[in-house]
Amino acid sequence: MRIRLKVMLLLASMLLILGLVEVIVEKSILMPSFAELEHDDARTAMRRINNVLTLSSERLALSAADWGNWADTYRFAQDRNAAYLTDNITPTALKQLQVNLVALIAADGRILMARDLDLSTEQGLGLEFVQGAELPLDFPWRRSLRDGQSLHGLLRTNQGILMLAAAPVLDGTGAGPQRGMMMMGRLLLSAEIVRLGEQAQARVTLGAPPPQAFGLERLTETEDTTQVSRSFVDLYGRPLMALTVEVPRRITERGRSAIAYASAYLIGAAVAVLLVLILILNWVVLRPLGLITRHAQALGAGEDLTAQLMLARRDEFGVLAREFDRMVSSLAESRRRLVDQSFHAGFAELAKGVLHNLGNAMTPIGVGLATLEQRLRSMPCEDALAASAELQQPINDAQRGADLHQFLPLACGEMVAAKRAAQQDVEVLIRQTSVVQGVLSEQMRSVRNEHVVEAVRLPDLLAQSLEVVPDNCRQRLIVDADDSLRQVGVVRVARTVLRLILQNLIINAADAIRDAGKSRGVLRVTAQIVPLTRHCELHLQCADDGIGIASADLERIFEQGFSTKSSLTNYGIGLHWCANAIRALGGRIWAASAGPGQGTSMHLVVPLST
User: Fold this and answer.
1) How far is CA 127 from its chain centroid?
2) pLDDT tens, position by position, 97-150
3) Whole-Å CA distances, 488 to 452, 538, 588, 603
4) Which site in 71, 239, 242, 550 is 20 to 30 Å from 221, CA atoms measured?
5) How far apart are CA 198 and CA 184, in angstroms?
């Protein structure tokens, strides 16, 4: 007899009525009614959140309309007067409006004015879609610039989700012709989401939108909460975000308590019956089930997948045991294959990383090898050998013999000098290999991680930068660390990035000394703390007495691919990377020079962290 039939025969007559009544009442009537009440509460909370979000968007649109329908804005859209910006587009104004972006867009899509601000730090946000000369060509609102429509919606930016509103620029009386669009935006940061939840009296979280059913509500339940999620799309109609409201399941919890009390009385009546059933079930069901459970636990606790249950039964437990043994055997084979595949995949990943590093390292080494090859090719070895062979033969021309005797020492001296220079080139190549590998490791870490702000003393930072400068560059420079570096004291900056920037500037200064025809030069480094309204900035100046820079090239030296040095060994990357790195830190960099032969001063300004 099958075990299913055994259990049904033993339990049906005694527990069928009690079990059916309790299950039907709890699952079909009581618990669904409790859950439905919680669903209504969660949906109501989501409607409040949606209303609050809509109200915030409408208020933002009202602010945009108020600024757009302002005579000063209307006049600025026509004459671009600077007084409008200095008097009105200030950090204080943006804080009062509680907006992170104010922009004025012309009717043809050109960006007449754009100011973005982090309200907590008063630093620029660098919102990419307003950084260019005009709005992106695919920006949905470009079609409405000439229609004079008020718009609002959500947009994903490089700084997060932006609540955006726009209104036409009118003359202050609501008349036209309209001269573009006043645009305002507010970032939906975590604090803003918390504020929305407080206004709606609910706990709300921001997350990624579901893979489908955008714009619809999705209800999910956990053991402790009922969650309602609503997805939103951006201006492009693409999925943007999902807001989730969590409501504690207090009704269900109390309902379960009430049901538990009622069930306790029924259980008490069934205990006497269960005592008899346990004795029977222990032999029929529990004993074989215990064997299978202990076998499964032993497999889970150990690494050996070769053990077999081998349960000799002809009921469902016997079938289950045999299938279990078969599945364990299949699992052992699958694990073996997975280990093999992981082993080969690990080698492939390692090889990829090694090839990547070798590719980066070979570029400067290849340039050095080309120089070394050119130097060795220019050695007069063949001429000296020919002269030596000619001297071993009788020479009738006395003048010719004298010339050959004079040529041989000169050729030997030139070859000795070339050999020494080649040895120096080899030493430089060795140092370049270690330096390139060090920079490669630093760059890989900076790509993976956020910049870490550290407390550092500027003399120590300068010394760390000199450690990674090639020896031939350090030999051409006398680095004069001004006492102002010590007086500044401890500053909190992105030490790793500044060290790499200073390394680039020191190497460039050494090259400038060389190009000026000097054997040694001076690089003077000074520092100054510049106090501002809300924060302080560190101003570093690196001044050399090298070849200098023409005034026409002062702005171009930070462009990618531009270099005043030889194109054989320089690709215009160093200063361009320095400028990008400084801007990423919220700072700026510029060069100053009185002209060729007058040296160069590089200025770095970075904000200090508090």
Assistant:
1) 15
2) 999 999 999 988 899 999 999 998 989 999 999 998 999 888 888 888 777 788
3) 21, 9, 19, 16
4) 239
5) 24
